[in-house]
Amino acid sequence: MIKLRFVFECGNSSVVEHDLAKVGVASSNLVSRSILFLLLITTFTYANINNTLAQAVLNKFETIYPCLDADLPTIKATSPLPSNFKEYKFLKIEISQNNLRKQIGNFRVLFKTKKKVKKIYFRFNINAKIDIFKAKHKLYNDKILTQNDYEKVSIKLDKLPSKIITCKMPERLITKNYISVGSVLTMNKFRYKKDVLRGTHVKAYLKDGALVLETEATVLRDANVGEIVKIKTANGKLFRAKIISNYKAIILE
């Protein structure tokens, strides 16, 4: 405790002393309260932005995985925040696709300051489950996928493979290669089934003046309606033809 003593002299009067110890105590308490107030402001400011960032991260995950079942993630800065952090204005977050397949990952946040836009890195930890698909039995090459070929399972979101199929299975998929039973299904194992598959027999039409000649032909590659492909007629002739329906084509001159 600091004691202050003031001495006043008035002519031949005796010295008057005044002990200001109480004043010193009051000043000390005032400083302590000021420091505590600043700490509370900093804590509340960080708590507010922390909740904002947590919700923003959750929104990112829910955009990618509509079937996500998750709690609000925990957020932590990867390095000490600036002393003037309370002056920063939140703009947006940025998370890489790789980090969106993990339970624990990093992301960066863009803040606006008085002079420029600053990037600060944070770390998230999200407790979440997600629906994926597994092969129910062996799937061989060029197999058109049906609902009997796979099953939906819920797993913890952690280190998911790239191009994983989640929430809903796309339609019109064909296997590219052999897939073993129990394998997690990812898009790189499939291609989309086109309207007309290679080897399909179609009716091919050739215009000759006012006449329209019809012949049987085989499509030589997968194609959608509207695409131009090569076809082979029954007598072995090759033509370029435009697919106009699943089983019809017009031979181009």
Molecular structure report:
This protein is α+β, with helices and mostly antiparallel strands. The protein folds into three domains: 42-126, no CATH class; 133-192; 201-251, SH3 type barrels (Roll). Helices cover 17% and strands 37% of the residues. The protein has one helix and 16 strands. It has a five-stranded mixed β-barrel. The N and C termini lie far apart (105 Å). Residues 1-27 and 29-44 have low confidence and may be disordered.
Which regions contain 5 or more consecutive residues with pLDDT less than 50?
Answer: 1-27, 29-44
Percentage of residues in helical conformation = 10-25%
Structural class: alpha+beta
Main sheet summary: 5 strands, mixed, barrel
Q: Please provide the ordered H/E string of secondary-structure elements.
A: EEHEEEEEEEEEEEEEE
Give the integer mean of the pLDDT values: 84
Our count of helices gives: 1
Oligomer: single chain
**Biggest sheet strand line-up:** 12-13-14-15-16
Question: What percentage of the residues does DSSP assign to strands (E)?
Answer: 35-45%
How many β-strands, per DSSP?
A: 16
Number of domains: 3
Radius of gyration: 36 Å
Shape assignment: elongated
